[in-house]
Here is the input.
Amino acid sequence: MKIIIKATQIELTPPIYEYIEEKFGSLNRFVKKFEINSEVKMEVEIGKPSRHHRRGNVFYAEANLYLPGKVLRAEHFDWDIRVAIDKVRDKLQKEIKKYKEKKIEKRREKDV
Here is the structure.
């Protein structure tokens, strides 16, 4: 799985970059099956929604996962960039599981 990371209105420091690689790299085990047929690509964007925010949900993280025939997307706004990254990863993991279950269900219907 190829991970493309983009930062908007914040500096992408090496510790944040490594954190993103670690968190989203662990999703590779869920999408390994889809990599056999084609390339699986993930785009991760982190940043601030605007320059003037000082309080509240200042940071956001969003991820788009390009699977064969489907794009899975998750986003989250939070006060801490790492919390936002964790929440997006969790949401994306749930979406991947749903997608896999639907694929398995379709295969079972074809076999019957």
Summary: Strands lie at 2-8, 41-47, 59-67, 70-78. The longest strand covers residues 59-67.
